[in-house]
Design a protein that fits this description.
Structural class: mainly alpha
Strand content: under 5%
Number of domains: 2
Low-confidence stretches: none
Order of helices and strands: HEHHEH
């Protein structure tokens, strides 16, 4: 009992189904990349590595879809002529899976090259707070100096009164 034609057809169909599922996953990841790219550009600071990794991720998914389509086409052509050979499209399906995995790795890695965006209004408020704090310190210093000057004036007035009293006698 060897491998029948139905077994070969089923094996090729499994490969084509897996490739189709990887194509769907790649298309989904391209949508996720686009949505998160817009969000990250708006809400976070990014470095050049972020752009490089996002482009590599995008290209990996596109290439994965392309190779999957070629593999499915090869399987279809061989099936049409009656030769259900798994090896004709196997390498393309393998590269499709590897590129899909690389796309995910590049995408996840790109997120590590972002940092929170500093809000300009928050920075402005921090500066205002610092200025108010400094002004409060200066006011305290001036009040202390004012109090000491009042005390000195009071002491001088007292001495003047004593001098005036002693000179009148």
């Amino acid at each position: 009992m060897g491998v029948t034609k139905d077994d070969k057809i089923e094996a090729v169909n499994i490969g084509v189904t897996l490739s189709s599922q990887l194509i769907a996953a790649s298309l989904s990841m391209l949508t996720i990349i686009a949505a998160l790219f817009v969000f990250i550009i708006d809400k976070r600071e990014v470095s050049y590595f972020f752009y490089i990794l996002i482009v590599l991720s995008f290209l990996s998914f596109i290439s994965s879809i392309f190779l999957g389509g070629q593999g499915i086409d090869d399987a279809r052509k061989n099936g049409f002529i009656g030769t259900w050979i798994l090896t004709c499209s196997e390498s393309k399906f393998n590269y499709q899976a590897i590129l899909c995995l690389l796309g995910i790795i590049f995408f996840i890695s790109s997120i590590f090259f972002t940092s929170p965006k500093i809000d300009a209004s928050l920075e402005y408020l921090k500066k205002i707070d610092t200025i108010i704090l400094q002004r409060s310190r200066y006011e305290t210093i001036l009040e202390n100096e004012n109090d000491s000057l009042k005390l000195e004036i009071k002491q001088i007035n007292q001495k003047m009164e004593e001098l005036c009293k002693t000179t009148r006698r």
